[in-house]
Fold:
Amino acid sequence: MLELKNVSKTFNPGTVNEKKALSDINLSVEKGEFITIIGSNGAGKSTLFNAVSGAFLPDTGKITLDNEDITLMPDFKRARFIGRLFQDPKTGTAPSMTVEENLMLASGGGRWLSISGRAERNALKERVASLGLGLEDRMKTPVGLLSGGQRQAVSLLMATVNPPKLLLLDEHTAALDPAAAEKILEVTEKTVYDGGLTCLMITHNMSSALQLGSRTVMMADGRIIFDTRGEERAKLTVDDLLVRFKDAAGRMLDNDRMLLS
Amino acid sequence: MGFSDILNIIQSVLELGLIGSLTVLALFLSYSMLNVCDLSTDGCFTLGAAVGAVVALSGHPYLAIPAAMAAGVCSGFVTAFLQTRMGINSLLSGIIVNTGLYSVNIAVLGGASLKNLNNVETVFTKMKALLSGTFLNGWHKVIVAFIAVALAVVFMSVFLKTRLGLAIRATGDNTEMVRYSSINPVFTTTVGLCVANAFTALSGCLLAQTQKLADINMGQGMVTVALASLLIGGTLFSRGSIKVRAVGAVVGGVIFRLVYAIALRFQMPAYMLKLVSAVIVIFAIFIPYLKKQYPALSKRLFRRKEA
Structure:
């Protein structure tokens, strides 16, 4: 489904700040897979997402999605079939526009000059109600007045209102308080499973990395150092993951936000 | 000051205020919605005046209106192209286009710095002929301006509700989010500036025709005057739907003219207009800023006194 072949990216080549952010990444994602990604600081997790979503073009390699070569496609065109959420809840929404207007823009039905009718607005309201956060009563509220968790829920809905081929979640609960984070994670899981979405999720929470999804990928220094699924993964504990990391990367896992429990 | 004097002032305030408020609506789109401070406004205003004047002089009073607006679209397109495709800072692209337009405008005016429109048929003279003998006799300028503004407000409030309009608003609010919604912000910025400049040019075109004169300097300072009007309207109608805020922009434009007319009555020389508008813009932006800074500021001052 999503295929990365020998994808590499070096930032600031030829300078003292040269950084090999991705080196020879090969990753093959099956349709319907839910992959959690963990790794140390600067391992290249977000860079990997940036390469897939088109924030920059890789130096080498090829990225295909559903057998279509998207390596050189501009980011806003890829966004039609790749949904993405960020750590900062402010990233995915327009603050001075209402919940409804944000969703209308994301749902993107119709032509440029079409105006959303009552039917479409009601359908969106139903989608919002399905989140179970009570946001359906705040459709006319500017998104900027919502809490971080609510805003992230709206972002999630915007990214998935038209089911994307691929959903990229970049530590999307990291900036939220624990209760909101748990709620958003719950909503995320439901959205992904109900929609049968293919999803990659970067997380700093080791235990949810193992609990959620069907496959876990570990990154260090721009490489994929460990990739596990199925029975092997089911038996893994957080401690096992730490040992695996040390074996593969040759040092301890260091991530200042990492939650081990 | 007799009744007819007051009536004259009201007429002139409404006429100039309404015509000027078309430029305010243009800035409502580019400045408030798209978050681009379009400094090509001055030149574009004159461009609309010049094109409208030349077309009207050639004997096409109605064609003058769309011709001026089309010229505005072209000017907006160039400004947008410079900032979205050529890597030029958005303020700088406005200034560059403004400078270039000075030559273009003189060229349009046939190498002269002004064109007289006395005895030329325009939409205003057409309306005057239509209304002569009715009770609205003498209100033709206000009526033409009012029709233009009403159409512009309706257009603006419908346009900003369309998917394209929403995308333009989102571009000014959070450009990244627009990209993630698979919309090219280059496209939305371009459309927004084209539409805005069409209204700026329309504003210039109507002003030239009502004053029977297109002058190379008539657009000078328009961006500040319009911005002052927009900010006045914004403080009065800060909350509310897009439609209400668009009406607020128009009201701001008329209030600005009213204050100006009153100041003239009190012997303020006419050349002070630009200084007044500059001061209004400064304070309209400074006061909200001061409100935000005040808690920290007062704390510092207070502590210093205590020590």
